[in-house]
Specification:
Layout lengths: L9 E4 L9 H16 L3 E4 L11 H14 L6 E5 L5 E4 L11 H13 L3 E4 L3 H13 L9 H4 L3 H9 L5 E4 L6 E5 L3 E5 L8 E3 L7 H11 L4 E5 L5 H12 L5 E5 L2 E2 L9 H13 L17 H9 L7 H11 L8 H6 L4 H9 L14 H7 L10 E2 L2 H14 L2 H15 L1 H7 L1 H11 L8 H4 L17 H8 L5 H13 L8 H15 L5 H12 L7 H8 L1 H14 L9
Helix pairs in contact: 1-14, 7-8, 9-11, 16-17, 16-18, 18-24, 21-23, 21-25, 22-24, 23-24, 23-25
This protein binds glutamic acid.
Length: 572
């Protein structure tokens, strides 16, 4: 076997664009990136879009934005304008979309056919199905038997083609033991007969993954293939193809799968699982309504989804369902984590720990450190467990370590993408106040927006649901919260619009508490909080009142007092 040891180190990340970038894919990209950088090498991005059914250009671009956000910029690959305006990609081994490389694949396939290392096969799907069923009935694994197809004459081929049969190209797999050497998993031997004459060009004229990957890894001078463990068995096919094509073998390293803590695979289905559980708990027999006021899915689809674990809601319906049920969906794709307000540097740090560790109990590090220290000998063989609580704790720590200005800038960045209406309504100046008020307790960049939706809600939409804590704040004690609320209104009304700020509010309300001998500010702060927010949690009260502004505060207090007018009885 020839190896490619003395060349510049080149790794590649080769996603199939079937949606957004899954965290597992992001971890693979991260390790490829770190390995290349740590060896002064190149990191190539190649889009494996030969599966026409699944690919879409938009999906491909989603991947690119996800990688950009994580800071994993490719030295070679699709040309892309990063968020910061920089352009990355290009390179002398393109194109980097496989769908644009068909001529190269065809030329190599023609060569293999001419050399007798590949052949045309004309089996119909029905014939293949029958062969598969026969294998199943005899309890043996299905292996394509190429004897008949190999023996076809040119005239036979012409006839079969004329009949309109599907025509694929199959690789004439040499029947011998295949030794796979893996930098992480060690060595494994696949006995002769395990790899059959697999398809290398599909009936639609596109190469299969196996063929394209082998040709492109060589064309792009890839020296190290780091990819998920699920591809380990494919490596046998790749080694055989490399030999048939006279191409060098790259070094292989198969990375452990990332699992949920319960041992299940992290998949988009987790979102449906969470929603289904919530729908069942709530006893919902019909789909709740979406933002447009009509059911999110029709009755039949809802029943099917509820009863069948394998049915998935389309992305938008899942988001609408989550909002309607008040469920936080488990994050699966990089974009999910971004939307939830995780910091890219935290996700990078955390993902690196899924399958690798630098040792010495070191857990917090940045991308530069990872590039310096990453080595395959510290990658584990066993599945990694995705510990969400730890990720959240990392995120909280990182947010707390930011200075005020950085937190504000990043909060705004996040909001411009996911909560533009919130920012427009609150105004950038008040956003600074919100950042200052929520910095210390925000675990994510999303929390200040989601937790403070009341700040930008219509005054008339605030309501006070039956709730123990609300009840306590408003109706318990003597005088109770409602009484204190009503009593402080004249003092608040006396504050001029321009003077409605933390300092004035603090002075006025402290004076009010002292004059009434209420003992502590909480006696009026908590009822105020409930009145203006409809809940019992908000940023510090004076900040909250300042951010909301005089008009909204007074209107909400008035509405709250009216809402409880007839039930102002202490309940205990
Ligand atoms: N397109 C393949 C995937 O997304 C790449 C596998 C490989 O790295 O060889 O799984």
């Amino acid at each position: 076997m020839s190896h490619v040891a003395d060349r510049t180190t080149v790794t590649r990340f080769a996603p199939s664009p079937s949606g957004n970038l899954h965290v597992g894919g992001a971890r693979t990209a991260l390790f490829c990136y770190a390995f290349a950088k740590g060896h002064d090498g190149r990191f190539v991005l190649r889009i494996e879009d030969t599966d026409q059914k699944r690919s879409s250009e938009a999906a491909g671009l989603g991947f690119l934005a996800d990688l950009d956000w994580l800071g994993l910029h490719w030295d070679e690959g699709p040309v892309f304008t990063c968020q910061d305006g920089r352009s990355v990609g290009g390179g002398e081994h393109g194109p980097y979309f496989q769908s644009e490389r068909l001529a190269t694949y065809d030329a190599a396939i023609d060569r293999l056919i001419a050399e007798g290392k590949a052949y045309l096969a004309f089996d119909t799907p029905e014939e293949l199905d029958a062969a598969r069923q026969a294998a199943r009935a005899e309890k043996r694994a299905f292996r394509y038997d190429g004897a008949a197809a190999r023996a076809l004459s040119d005239a036979d081929r012409e006839r079969l083609r004329a009949e309109g049969r599907p025509c694929v190209v199959r690789f004439a797999s040499p029947q011998r033991d295949i030794v796979i050497r893996d930098e992480i998993l060690g060595e494994a031997t696949l006995p002769a007969g395990e790899v059959d004459d697999f398809v290398i060009r599909k009936a639609d004229g596109f190469p299969t993954y196996h063929f394209a990957v082998v040709l492109d890894d060589a064309a792009m001078q890839v020296t190290h293939v780091l990819r998920a463990q699920e591809h380990f068995n494919n490596t046998a096919k790749h080694l055989l193809l490399q030999e048939a094509l006279g191409l060098p073998h790259p070094t292989y390293a198969h990375l452990p799968i990332i699992f949920n803590p319960d041992g299940s695979k992290m998949s988009k289905r987790d979102k449906d699982k969470a929603l289904r559980e919530a729908a069942k708990t709530a006893g919902l027999e019909k789909s709740p309504d979406g933002p447009d006021g009509s059911p999110i899915v029709d009755e039949k689809a809802y029943a099917r989804w509820l009863g069948d674990k394998t049915v998935q809601l389309p992305g938008e319906a899942a988001t609408a369902m989550a909002a309607a049920l008040g469920v936080a969906l488990p994050e699966i794709d990089v974009e999910d984590f971004r939307r939830s307000g995780y910091l890219p540097e935290v996700l990078v740090n955390f993902l690196a720990l899924n399958g690798w560790s630098p040792g010495d109990d070191l857990e917090k590090f940045d991308l530069a450190f990872l590039c310096q220290r990453f080595a395959l000998d510290r990658v584990v063989k066993t599945p990694a467990r995705f510990d969400r609580a730890k990720l959240l704790a990392f995120n909280l720590d990182a947010i707390q370590q930011m200075d005020e200005a950085t937190f504000l800038a990043r909060l705004l960045d996040h909001g411009r993408r996911y909560h533009p209406g919130f920012i427009a309504r609150l105004g950038e100046e008040r956003m600074a106040a919100l950042a200052a008020a929520s910095h210390a307790r925000s675990k994510t960049l999303d929390e200040p927006y989601v937790g403070n939706a009341f700040l930008v809600a219509d005054d008339e939409s605030i309501s006070w649901p039956p709730d123990k804590a609300i009840d306590k704040a408003l109706r318990k004690g003597e005088p109770n919260g409602l009484a204190n609320l009503a009593a402080c209104v004249p003092a608040l009304q006396a504050i001029d619009e321009h003077a409605w700020n933390v300092a004035t509010l603090e002075r006025v309300l402290e004076t009010f508490v002292a004059e009434r001998e209420l003992g502590n500010i909480g006696k009026v702060a908590q009822p105020l909080r409930v009145a203006v927010s409809g809940g019992t949690v908000s940023p510090p009260i004076f900040d909250t009142l300042e951010m909301l502004g005089r008009t909204s505060c007074l209107r909400r207090i008035e509405r709250c007092l009216a809402a409880f007018e007839h039930s102002n009885v202490a309940t205990s």
